[in-house]
């Protein structure tokens, strides 16, 4: 699938927050998305402390690429890999407009945006080798040959996008995780936590970011 969300319905809340009409959910937190990325996905996976050459990060839900840029900003210079699974890719103009809301991320986004505009879904940004796998993760993740040291589980909310939080898909996440590998996600929904436990993760609940009381993290047991 190569079409953007623009064609399926993308609106802008307050002129700066992209909201998917398909899922009726924003692409990032209304309460400083970059800070949420740092709190949930980076700190939740104990990054950048764990980063080392060859470290593999994987993600469900690429969206605007904000998590990739945050990872780039925190990387001390290690050659690492980043793989994201995205069913409904945004077009370059929409991504650029969304990232304008985050000047720190926007200043390092040009290599990504230039590659994206050319249709590239494999590209380098700093020392990160990134690959965005387009298609339904229920189809693409089982065929992925990699295993992640850390997962960013960042799909739209479980209530709006239940397919991306189904027990079968979270079992595939575990199957594609290195021993001792971790995940972090903004949601603390009970059925998601139970599915991750059943998949083999030891799951903890932590304070969330902003107005969200709780988030979830875990280690593959």
Find the structural class using helix and strand composition: alpha/beta
Rg (C-alpha, Å): 16 Å
Known CATH architecture: 3-Layer(aba) Sandwich
CATH class label: Alpha Beta
Give a quick summary of the entry.
The chain is built from 9 helices and 11 strands. It is α/β, with parallel strands linked by helices. The protein has one domain (5-220): Rossmann fold.
Q: Can you describe this structure?
A:
- The protein is α/β, with parallel strands linked by helices and 221 residues long.
- It has one domain (5-220): Vaccinia Virus protein VP39 (Rossmann fold), CATH 3.40.50.150.
- Helices cover 31% and strands 28% of the residues.
- It is built from nine helices and eleven strands.
- It has helices at 5-9, 33-44, 66-74, 92-99, 103-106, 110-117, 137-140, 167-175, 190-199, and strands at residues 10-13, 17-20, 25-26, 56-60, 80-86, 122-125, 128-134, 148-153, 177-185, 201-207, 214-220.
- The strands form two sheets. The chain has an eight-stranded mixed sheet, sandwiched between helices. Strands 1-2-3 form a three-stranded antiparallel sheet.
- β6 and β7 form a beta hairpin.
- The radius of gyration is 16 Å and the shape is globular.
- The N and C termini lie far apart (35 Å).
- 43% of the residues are buried.
- Mean pLDDT is 90; it is low at 1-8.
Annotate the secondary structure layout.
Layout: H1 5-9, E1 10-13, E2 17-20, E3 25-26, H2 33-44, E4 56-60, H3 66-74, E5 80-86, H4 92-99, H5 103-106, H6 110-117, E6 122-125, E7 128-134, H7 137-140, E8 148-153, H8 167-175, E9 177-185, H9 190-199, E10 201-207, E11 214-220
Parallel strand pairs: 4-5, 4-8, 5-7, 8-9
Antiparallel strand pairs: 1-2, 2-3, 6-7, 9-11, 10-11
């Amino acid at each position: 699938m190569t079409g953007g969300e623009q064609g399926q319905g993308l609106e802008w809340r307050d002129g700066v927050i992209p909201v998917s009409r398909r899922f009726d959910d924003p692409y990032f937190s209304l309460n400083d998305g970059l800070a949420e990325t740092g709190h949930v996905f980076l700190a939740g996976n104990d990054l950048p402390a764990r980063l080392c050459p060859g470290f593999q990060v994987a993600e469900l839900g690429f969206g605007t690429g904000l998590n990739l840029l945050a990872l780039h900003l925190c990387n001390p210079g290690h050659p690492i890999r980043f793989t994201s699974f995205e069913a409904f890719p945004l077009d370059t103009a929409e991504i650029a407009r969304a990232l304008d809301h985050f000047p720190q991320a926007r200043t390092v986004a040009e290599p990504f945006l230039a590659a994206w505009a050319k249709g590239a879904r494999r590209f380098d940004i700093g020392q990160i080798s990134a690959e965005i796998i387009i298609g339904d993760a229920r189809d693409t993740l089982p065929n992925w040959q990699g295993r992640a040291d850390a997962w960013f589980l960042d799909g739209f909310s479980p209530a709006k996008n239940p397919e991306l939080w189904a027990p079968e898909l979270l079992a595939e996440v575990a199957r594609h995780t290195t021993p001792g590998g971790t995940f972090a996600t903004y949601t603390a929904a009970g059925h998601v936590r139970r599915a991750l436990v059943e998949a083999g993760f030891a799951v903890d609940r932590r304070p969330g970011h902003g107005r969200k009381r709780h988030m979830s993290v875990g280690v593959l047991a």
